[in-house]
């Protein structure tokens, strides 16, 4: 297998000459929900599980606060 000079991840036998750019982009966009974290938050939220845990905790607090405010 020969590797292309410009891109070590691309092999010479890959042929994208008949490809259509963005063919599946709209379908992909519909099925994903990507959020970009600021670099300084990576230390605290290294993966999606930690982000989800923090957001669930925040949601509980918000719900509790709303309920107290409504009383």
Describe this structure in words.
By secondary structure, the protein is mostly helical. The chain has a domain at 38-70. Helices cover 41% and strands 0% of the residues. The protein is built from two helices and no strands. It has helices at residues 25-30, 48-70. It is elongated and about 70 Å long.
CA distance, first residue to last residue: 70 Å
Low-confidence parts? none
The radius of gyration is 22 Å
General shape: elongated
Number of helices: 2
Mean pLDDT: 87
Describe the biggest sheet? none
User: What structural class results from the helix and strand content?
Assistant: mainly alpha
β-strand percent reads under 5%
Give, in order, the helices and strands.
HH
Total beta strand runs: 0
* Residue share in helix: 40-55%
SSE topology sketch:
Layout: H1 25-30, H2 48-70
TL;DR?
This protein has 71 residues and is mainly alpha-helical. 41% of the residues lie in helices and 0% in strands.
Feature tags:
mainly alpha
